[in-house]
Predict the 3D structure of the following.
Amino acid sequence: MTRSDDDAWDVQTGVGSTAVIVAALRAAETNSANPLVRDEVAELLISAPELEGTRASIAAWAASSEHQADSDYRRLVNYHAVRTHYFDRFCAESSAAGVQQVVILAAGLDSRAYRLAWPAGTAVYEIDMPGVLEYKSATLACHGAAPTAVRRAVGVDLRKDWPGALQGNGFDSAKPTAWLIEGLLPFLSARAQHDMFARLDGLSAPASRLAAEDFVGAVGFQQAVEQQRAMDAGDDRWGDDGGLDPGDVWHDDANSNCADWFRSHSWRTTCLDSREEAERLGRPARSVLRGQAPMFANFIAAIKPGAGGCESGEW
């Protein structure tokens, strides 16, 4: 898929199709012998008849890797388990601190509004392309799944006026917010990222907090691109349409250094190397690709200074 400033997608095409891969990886983790995270909703999200071909491709990939302890497939399952665990913990910490307004940017097939134990009154806003959110709502409704929070789907392109759409759906910028930026930044150009960060900052009341997945500087991002495309090279497991090779839909200029941006705008910011977190959780990636560690992201946590209990805590 050739990226442009106005490209669009649903769950079967381009950027949107990567959400299906991620949901399948969460389902695989859930069905494993000793899951780090449990996401029973993930299997439902990829169960629609129109995704049969994608499910078959992923199943074939998993089967081909069955006896490889550190295959590309297994490393991705492990990495996404570690990432999901981190963001789930961020949500729990935010709720414990009293934050009742949560925004998931590029929510894709994220299931947190359905599977986490949210305190009463919590509103979870999911922002993504209309077609992606419509698919999710319809699919889960067919299975009788009900959200565990007040779920508000905001169908809008993050490169457009998403703040207006968010506020039009009841978002209150006077209240502290917990923002999730997971699996998003490589799909936006650096300029689009900075625009999104500035809008997010403008909507954030004091004591708002943020969790993000980001790459470490220009070298780290280039390594990530090389690794992803090396995994994709010569790989025909996705068929001929090219819609499911994640490296093909990343922006070459997507490196923005999220942590530096928020730190320079007065957010109290910390970074956690995902490799260290994987080691701590017993999910280390043992192999390397061309001398590069296969887990390459940082997990960013940030809090906007301000009075009130919501600013306290390890985040």
DSSP finds eleven helices and seven strands in the chain. Strands lie at 101-105, 123-128, 150-155, 178-181, 209-215, 268-273, 297-303. Confidence is low (pLDDT under 50) at residues 234-244, 287-295, 308-315.
